[in-house]
Amino acid sequence: MIRLQKLLAETGLGSRRECEGLIADGYVTVDGNVVTEMGCQVDPQRQRICCKGVPVRVEPKVYYLLNKPKDYVCTSRDELGRPRAIDLLRGVAQRVYCVGRLDADSEGLIILTNDGELTNFLTHPRYGVAKTYLVEVNARLESRDLEGLSKGVWLSGGKTSPAKVRVLRRGSSNTWMEITLKEGRNREVRRILARLGYKVRKLVRIRIGWLEDSRLKTGRFRRLTPGEVARFYSMMNDKSEKPQKRQYINQGSGSRV
Fold this sequence. Notes:
Low-confidence stretches: 242-257
Oligomer: single chain
Helix content: 10-25%
């Protein structure tokens, strides 16, 4: 037995949160009955599960790394009809979704998969998987603000965790820096810098945990190697109270690099 929202996420219908939305909106049926309870346990081998009338089927797990361009959104559904990051994965047969989000104004690395378990590990704050960003702001970064970033900044939702900051170039009218965060708050980098009085001119995610790829051009993607997937699962098992062994499958159409 498996929780319904977890099953839906593992079949590639979206992140776990997006799948919870599908359930709450009444789009999911189990044996012909609409289910809206989040804790519902199902048996995919014995029960007929549908989303919007289409039978749900478990697909092989796939993992891709995309260098997202600006103006693409990281959602599976967009009511405004804006271009989506998943639209760039041409030739991929499985339904995948973005692991976390980069806002439309931001660029850089993002993982796309249909593996709900790995998605939860990479995005849940309790695991603290670091993400590193290359950032340009519109002024010279003052030393007191650099110290403030390293200690945490108060936002509307509370104080942020300390950020690791490395100044790359500091001029009279701009500053380039690397910022590493272990939280997943909405637009966190932009918000903390705005709180300190800076406007972000450019923001590019360059690293997810240990994963980086400077050769991956903007708008291109590639499959994660089995070794890369296994390394993420090794991290997850190290941080889990009950480590579990599992096999890694990375099938699907060829990547674009």
